[in-house]
């Protein structure tokens, strides 16, 4: 894993210490070990974990400045992209949010062993927001839902002036077109689409700036969000 990252990270002008590479590799190893008894990832080769999980997530360091920021990873699953970002930028204050209790229990167990600090929360995104509405500098999300649904789950967490980074693949343009109206309604504006290559495929991070406060009625209950996206 470390050799793969040493080879790939210069492509994004990202430099990590040996200690940070060690921590990432230990997290990857713990992920693969736990994956034998719990479904955490479909990627099981160490080199592929390094490339398709770690390198993919770390590319976000070029999409926004995470230094000293309050960050929430919504629908984090096994900890992506939040955990690799926290390892690479320890100054950020990270909250990991997901509704799947077993995965979050595992993160609560493994992160202290790696000396990675994070607030690990088991809750639904549309419900937990009442505790911390518009209090994060950055919200990130990877492989959770289409953008017209995801924006309503994530933008209410972001303070005015902050950013929401939605990690997307080839269909980013299509999703962006169908989500534009909703993004504006939620107080956001698409700033740019950050593109980078992972394993010969183009990946995209949609960078949405929070320009005005999200109206209090959003987010709606998830059934309504899914049935009629903004």
Based on DSSP secondary structure assignment, what is the total number of beta strands? 7
Strand content: 15-25%
Q: List low-confidence stretches.
A: none
In order across it, which strands form the biggest sheet? 3-2-1-4-5-7-6
Shape: globular
Range of helix content: 25-40%
* Distance N to C terminus: 41 Å
* N to C succession of SSEs: HHHEHEHEHEHEHEEH
Give a structural overview.
Helix 2 packs across helix 3. The longest helix is centred in the first third of the chain and has 17 residues, at 18-34. The chain is an alpha/beta fold. It is built from nine helices and seven strands. The chain has helices at residues 2-8, 18-34, 46-58, 82-88, 101-113, 125-128, 147-154, 172-185, 222-227; strands at 70-74, 93-98, 119-122, 136-142, 158-168, 188-198, 201-210. Strand 6 (188-198) and strand 7 form a beta hairpin. Strands 3-2-1-4-5-7-6 form a seven-stranded mixed sheet, with helices on both faces.
Question: Can you summarize this structure?
Answer:
With 230 residues, this protein is α/β, with parallel strands linked by helices.
